Amino acid sequence: MKLDRALLLHLGLLAALLAFHFAAPAYHHTNIARIMVLAIYAMGYNIAFGYTGLLSLGHALFFGAGLYAAGLLAYHAEGTAGTGLIAGLAAGGLVAFALGLFALRTAGVAFMIVTLMFAQAGYLTVLYFGSYTRGDEGIVIPRAGRMLGSLDLSDDNTRYLVAFALFAAALLVNLWLARSPRGRIMVAMRENEERSRMLGYNPFTVKLAALTISGLYSGLSGAAYALMFGYAGASLASVQYSILPLLYVLLGGAGTVIGPFLGALLMFYLIDYASSVTDAHQFVTGAALVLLILFAPKGILGTLRERGLRWLP
Amino acid sequence: MLRLEGIEAGYGAVQVLRGLSLSVAAGEVLCLMGRNGAGKSTTLKTIIGQLRASAGTIELDGARLETLPAHEVPRQGVGYVPQGRRLFGDLTVAENIEIGLMTRKRDARTRDRVLELFPRLRERMGQVSRTLSGGEQQMLAIARALCLEPKVLLLDEPTEGLQPSMIALIRDTVVALKKTGVATILVEQRVDAALSVADRIAFMTGGSVAETVPAAGLRADAPQFAAYVGV
C-alpha cells in the first residue's frame, strides 16, 4: 500500500486511538474499546451498504452468529477467546454467504424485507433454543473462555489493546479493499448494476462476495463483543442491532472507510449523553438523524468528500 | 464475424424485433438507421444480452451468444456504448477505465493504446466522470468499452447532443478502429454522420431489416432515407 495522505490519515487515527489508551479516563477508556468493536461491525455493514448498495435490515443475524459462536463455544465447550474469535469470524461469513444465496435473488425493498425476516428468524431461534442459549437472560461467559493465550480479556487494558488490534486490522483491510479493483467493482455495482453487467461483471457474484466479507466483519465484531464484555444475550441479536450499524454508517458517511467509526463514536456518545438527561433519549437521536438527512445526507465524511476532500477513501 | 439470424425480442408482451437478421464482418462498419421504434437500440441490447432473444441465433466467430448470461457477452469480445453514455458518475475517469480493463484482465498497455485515441482523457484521469462535458463523457464511454479490446463494438447514437468537433473526433475514432479490424454496429440518426463512416447501411422498420445497401455512392437525398428515416 503506497504511503499517501489517505493512508496517513488512517494511520493517524490509529495512532490517536493508541495514544488514547495511555491518557483516557477509565469511563471513556471502556467506551472507546466498545466503540472500536462496534465500529468493526459498522465497517462490515458499510461494505455491503456503503460500497455495494445493499441496504440490509438483517445484519444482526451475522453479528449474532459471531456473538453466539464465541459465547456458546466458551460456555458449553470450554473454548478460549482465540477459538471463539475464529469461530465467530467463520460463523458470520458462512451465515452471510448462505443468506446471500437466497436474499440476493431479490433487490431493493424486497431485499430489506427478506434480510429482516431472516434476522428475526435468527433472533427467535436464539429464544427457542433457550436451554442452550439461555434466551433473554443470555450467557455470561466464564473467565477461562475469555483468555486469549495468556491475555485476559476481562482486564480493561488488555481489552482495549485487543479491541484496538482488531479494529486496526479491520480498518486497514477495509482501506485496502476500498482502493482495490474489487472495491471499484463494488462501487460500480452500487451505482448501476445493469451498467456493470454490460461491462462483463456478474452482479450476483460481486454482491455475494461483498455480503460475505460484510458477514466476516460482523461475525468477528460479534465474537469480540461477547468475549470482551463477557456476555452474549438475545437482545444483541435483535432488530435494534440491525438498525444500529445503519445509523452509524449514515452518520459517519456511507462508502467512506473512517465513516463507520466516526458514526459509531458520535452516536454512542449522543445516546450516552441524551440518556443521562432524559428518558426519551430516542427523540434526541431521532432529531439528530433528521438534521443529518436535511443538511448532510451523505453523512459527515461523505459531505466533506463531496465538498473538496475527493481523496478521502 | 457477428451474425444475427431470425431474432425475436421485446419488452414483456411488446415484441419489438421480428425475425431480424444481419451480419457484420471484421473491420466493417454497419450503420442501423430507421425511425423511432424501428428496433435499432433494441437490436444492440439484444446482442449484448440486456434483452433476451425469444427466438433466433446470435453468433460471434461461430460461438453462440444468445445462450450466455448477459455478463458473459462482453467477455466474449463485445463492447457496448449505450445511448446517453451511462458512466459510473461518482468514479473518476481513471476508475471508469480501470473497470473496463478488469473485465478481460487487460493491462496498462491496453489503457495506453485507448488513451492515444482520446488524449484529452489523459488530462482528466483524476476527475469525477459526472463533471466531464458531454463530449468528454462520450469519449470516456467509448474508451471504457475499448478497454475490453472488443472484436465487435456496438455504438448507440454516439453523436447525440455533441458539438461538431466532438462528432468529428468520434468519427475519426470509428475509422481508426476499423483499420484495426474491429467490427462496428452503429445506431445513428444523423445521415451525414452515418454516410461518413459506414460501409453498409441497414434500414430498419417494424423490428427487422428492410434493406441493406452499401454506403459508398449513397447520397443524403437517396430515397431510402426519406422512406425509412423520414428525412
How is the topology of this model organized?
The complex is a heterodimer of chains A (313) and B (231).
Chain A: H1 5-23, H2 26-51, H3 59-76, H4 81-103, H5 108-128, H6 130-133, E1 139-140, E2 147-148, E3 151-152, H7 156-179, H8 181-191, H9 193-198, H10 203-229, E4 231-232, H11 240-252, H12 259-277, H13 281-295, H14 299-306
Antiparallel strand pairs in A: 1-4, 2-3
Chain B: E1 2-11, E2 14-24, E3 29-34, H1 40-48, E4 55-60, E5 63-64, H2 72-75, E6 78-81, H3 93-103, H4 108-117, H5 119-122, H6 134-146, E7 152-156, H7 164-179, E8 183-187, H8 191-197, E9 200-205, E10 208-214, H9 223-229
Parallel strand pairs in B: 3-8, 3-9, 6-7, 7-8
Antiparallel strand pairs in B: 1-2, 1-4, 4-5, 9-10
Summarize the biggest pleated sheet of chain B: 6 strands, mixed
Q: What's the overall average pLDDT of chain A, rounded?
A: 92
Q: CATH homologous superfamily of the largest domain in chain B, by name?
A: P-loop containing nucleotide triphosphate hydrolases
Largest interface: A-B, 18 and 28 residues
Structure description:
- Chain B: Keywords: Amino-acid transport, ATP-binding, Nucleotide-binding, Transport.
- Chain B: Residues 2-231 form the ABC transporter domain.
- Chain B: One of its GO terms (molecular function) is ATP binding.
- Chain B: This is ABC transporter ATP-binding protein.
- With 313 residues, chain A is mainly α.
- Chain A has helices at residues 5-23, 26-51, 59-76, 81-103, 108-128, 130-133, 156-179, 181-191, 193-198, 203-229, 240-252, 259-277, 281-295, 299-306; strands at residues 139-140, 147-148, 151-152, 231-232.
- In chain A, helix 4 (81-103) runs antiparallel to helix 10 (203-229).
- Chain A is globular.
- Chain B has 231 residues and is of the alpha/beta class.
- Chain B folds into two domains: 2-77 and 150-229, Rossmann fold; 85-149, no CATH class.
- Chain B contains nine helices and ten strands.
- A six-stranded mixed sheet of chain B has the order 6-7-8-3-9-10, with helices on both faces.
- In chain B, strand 1 and strand 2 (14-24) form a beta hairpin.
- The relative contact order of chain B is 0.20.
